[in-house]
């Protein structure tokens, strides 16, 4: 039995690593659309079409539940996919809602009216496409009022991480944090709105300073998924665990092995 995890590239491995630690009894099929990464510079229609194609491939692999471990896909495609109708017995979940629930200290499924929360000034670091979608602000408004969100599009960071150039990625992060601070000098919290960013989370934290709470998605999504599967054990699906990519399997495997520090072998999708 397997749950699908989808990302445009390697960033979703940060989520996979956390959910595997939290749910060792669950098998996962990871799908990376590395041939078309990054999604963060694509328009919404393009992201939607690519996401639908990837999710359909995971349905074929036996998954009943797919986690969009890609903030750009969650922002540009998730709601459209859900409103358009999913195959019977299938479910797609994104990574925004668990993050916002943690930020606003709301329990999963809390549908009470939006209310004031402790954190009033939030920095959002995300891809250009995620920032342009304003999906984070929309979902936050369903749950909280009076929160000032300053979004910073972090161009180039995903590309550098995918290429394994961590020196460039770290330099870009510091530049984007400086740009954010010019607009919001004293954020109380920072949201890393891309699953690639946990790979440079400490750089964000150091640049923001110790007084800023950084919210990263891996552990938050893992806890939310554990809760969901506890209530819906039938959504574990079928199929064998594995790693699929639209890119060069050997190259992607090498990069993934470096990121997770354990052997990872991708197959062609």
Can you walk me through this structure?
The structure is a single chain. With 269 residues, the protein is α/β, with parallel strands linked by helices. It has two domains: 2-96 and 218-268, Rossmann fold; 103-216, Rossmann fold (3-Layer(aba) Sandwich). Helix content is 45%, strand content 18%. The protein is built from eleven helices and twelve strands. It has helices spanning 13-22, 44-60, 71-84, 96-104, 128-133, 135-141, 157-162, 166-183, 201-208, 217-231, 249-260; strands spanning 2-7, 27-32, 65-68, 91-93, 115-116, 121-126, 144-145, 148-153, 189-192, 213-215, 242-245, 267-268. It has a six-stranded parallel sheet with strand order 4-3-1-2-11-12, with helices on both faces. A four-stranded parallel sheet has the order 8-6-9-10, with helices on both faces. Helix 11 (249-260) links the parallel strand 11 and strand 12 (267-268). Helix 2 (44-60) packs across helix 3 and helix 8 (166-183) packs parallel to helix 9. The longest helix is centred in the middle third of the chain and has 18 residues, at 166-183.
Largest sheet: 6 strands, parallel
Task: Say how many strands there are.
Answer: 12
Number of domains: 2
| Residues in helix, % | 40-55%
Mean pLDDT: 93
